[in-house]
Amino acid sequence: MKVILFLIIGYVMGALPNGVWIGKYFKGIDIREHGSKNSGATNSYRVLGPKYGLMVLAADALKGFLPPFLASQFGVTGNWLILIGMAAIIGHILSFFLNFKGGKGVATSLGVFLFLIPKVTLALLVIFIIVVYATRYISLGSIIAAILLPVLTFISPLNYGIEKWPMMVMTIIIAIFVVYKHKTNIERLLKGTENKFKLK
């Protein structure tokens, strides 16, 4: 029952559409009608500006971090934490608040993995920042980080009683999904028409 409760909590927290709510509350606009029409942090940054974009990023990462963290505080360990983290990511991607639509899951995955595999996540964050700084493409940074996620996870020790192969399966699924969700970005990158990240 405890695990089921936290799976539900994970999904509901993950489903919170922070970008949509912050955009409507502070700017009076629905970001799903602007820019890339995505409800995540990147489009929030472009449409709402850096202050609110970073607010969405932090909120989306936090809703990924909190479910497995809270579950661990109530004695949940091992591979159940992986499933609770996945529930949060699925909630973000298929939010019942948004008719089972949502963002690409990058920021929420960041929060989940920051708890489950912090050293790997911090290393990927550094790689992401370097790629974005060098190319000005957030999408490229996200894609490269996603591809490297299972690679670095494979060579890293795990905590909380989590087994290696279930964690590998999760990271591979997330990597494939993130790359798939960026398919239109990949097409634009190949054509040279992808939007570049600009500091405002």
TrEMBL record:
Catalytic activity as recorded in UniProt: an acyl phosphate + sn-glycerol 3-phosphate = a 1-acyl-sn-glycero-3-phosphate + phosphate
Pfam family, any one: G3P_acyltransf
Keywords annotated in UniProt: Acyltransferase, Cell membrane, Lipid biosynthesis, Lipid metabolism, Membrane, Phospholipid biosynthesis, Phospholipid metabolism, Transferase, Transmembrane, Transmembrane helix
Membrane topology: Multi-pass membrane protein
EC number: 2.3.1.275
Main location, first listed in the record: membrane
GO biological process: phospholipid biosynthetic process
Keyword Transmembrane annotated: yes
Molecular-function annotations in GO: acyl-phosphate glycerol-3-phosphate acyltransferase activity
Biological or metabolic pathway of the protein: Lipid metabolism; phospholipid metabolism
GO cellular component: plasma membrane
HAMAP family hit by this protein: PlsY (MF_01043)
The family this protein is said to belong to: Belongs to the PlsY family.
Biological role: Catalyzes the transfer of an acyl group from acyl-phosphate (acyl-PO(4)) to glycerol-3-phosphate (G3P) to form lysophosphatidic acid (LPA). This enzyme utilizes acyl-phosphate as fatty acyl donor, but not acyl-CoA or acyl-ACP.
Protein name: Glycerol-3-phosphate acyltransferase
Annotated source species: Fusobacterium hominis
